[in-house]
Amino acid sequence: MLLDVALTPALVPDLASGPPDDGLAVVVIDTLRFTSTVISALAAGADGILPVAEEDAARSRAAELGALLGGERDALPLPGFDLGNSPPSYDQSTVAGRLIVMTTTNGTRAVGATAEAGRVLAGCLLNAEVTADELTAADPERVLLLCAGRRGAVAADDLATAGCLAGSLLLMAAAEPTDAARTAIALFDAWKGDLLGLLNRSASGRKLASLGLVADIEFCARVDAVPLVAELDDAGIFRGRSEP
Amino acid sequence: MLLDVALTPALVPDLASGPPDDGLAVVVIDTLRFTSTVISALAAGADGILPVAEEDAARSRAAELGALLGGERDALPLPGFDLGNSPPSYDQSTVAGRLIVMTTTNGTRAVGATAEAGRVLAGCLLNAEVTADELTAADPERVLLLCAGRRGAVAADDLATAGCLAGSLLLMAAAEPTDAARTAIALFDAWKGDLLGLLNRSASGRKLASLGLVADIEFCARVDAVPLVAELDDAGIFRGRSEP
């Protein structure tokens, strides 16, 4: 297994244009907060999450599908949306049995960079171990941990999550890491004793704190709290399955 | 001091188009091997190094200036060039008193991304400490450690060098690190006991080893071996000055 990390979506130039690649598994990572929201919603019984990059398209898809509409711009809820991008707000009473259309500043756009991958998973700290287990069992030729980043820059919350996954894959799956994968592992290892500290210091974390959303950071920092694998289906909808 | 790291030249989108920024100091880093060659050549008494991105332009500039011509493509010397990109070959008997026009696959192109910076330095492991000292003394508003990378991807040799510099600046200059700067520091800290091991494992290092150029890797891994600051002058030529 070749183990690569894209530190931002701009650093996956060959994916968008290449031929379909059945041997490639991509994990989209937007720990603060899109993929943490996806995992939380699916764990709360949501039927699925359809990521849509643009706000207008998200509105029309949600209306068409009778879905809930969630997401943010600049970390804030959008007018007329049912939900923002706060993971704990996607609770059972709100989302159970529902399809949810989501659009976010960085995360849903990152999903758009995965078009040619054989499999696309959603990863965050909440489901790091089960996602690494899933990839180890599937043993694809190539794994790309795709960090959503923040406005085109590297986001420490995403990269540390990639490092958490990459470290597990290196131990379990005899993976061959790229320079970027080694970088992610080093960031995770440096901060694994204080991941909440890293998230609080990150640009995304500081933005959330400035909006009074510290509880979201703490929620997303709970490593392996949700044993659920999330994967895009053929319709481009993230579906969850719990692992024993 | 805001302390940022561009993990590849593609991640400095605002530099090329923005207005001149006197408060910005950029350190271009291409440890294997362009900036190590620049430092070695200047330490050996070269008058200056003029980086030129394209091969044809490099040939005509060298002819025009009566300069030596050095560089590589795909790590190999170019036909008709006086020198390749191997730092130890830029010795006193070859380069003393000479201007050298250089073109390389990644490093000289990275220099092109610095157009709007107030100051542009060349950094590598060889001159890490003096470069950090220089920046600490100058105390610019913003420091950008610009990693040349390798074919658009993150290069561990460059990023670890950025981390070496960034760690010193954090200690000495009360710098405020971005997420990318924290990432570089983590990579350096993880490998500081075995930087040669990291360089050997890096994509650039493996390429050099495959060409029998292991001695170049060992040469470039010698942290703080050359107490020389290199800076672009108004004509776009790197000039050196030795620090006591």
Estimated share of beta-strand residues of chain A: 15-25%
Please name the two chains that share the biggest interface, counting residues whose Cβ lies under 8 Å from a Cβ on the partner chain. A-B, 27 and 27 residues
**Count, helices of chain A:** 11
Mean pLDDT across all amino acids of chain A:
94
The helical percent of chain A reads 40-55%
- Radius of gyration of chain A, in angstroms, nearest whole number: 16 Å
Tell me the distance between the termini of chain A. Answer: 25 Å
Oligomer: homodimer
Describe the global form of chain A.
globular
Could you give a short account of the major beta sheet of chain A? 7 strands, mixed
Give the H and E element order of chain A. EHEHEHEHEHEHEHEHHHHEE
* Low-confidence sequence ranges of chain A: none
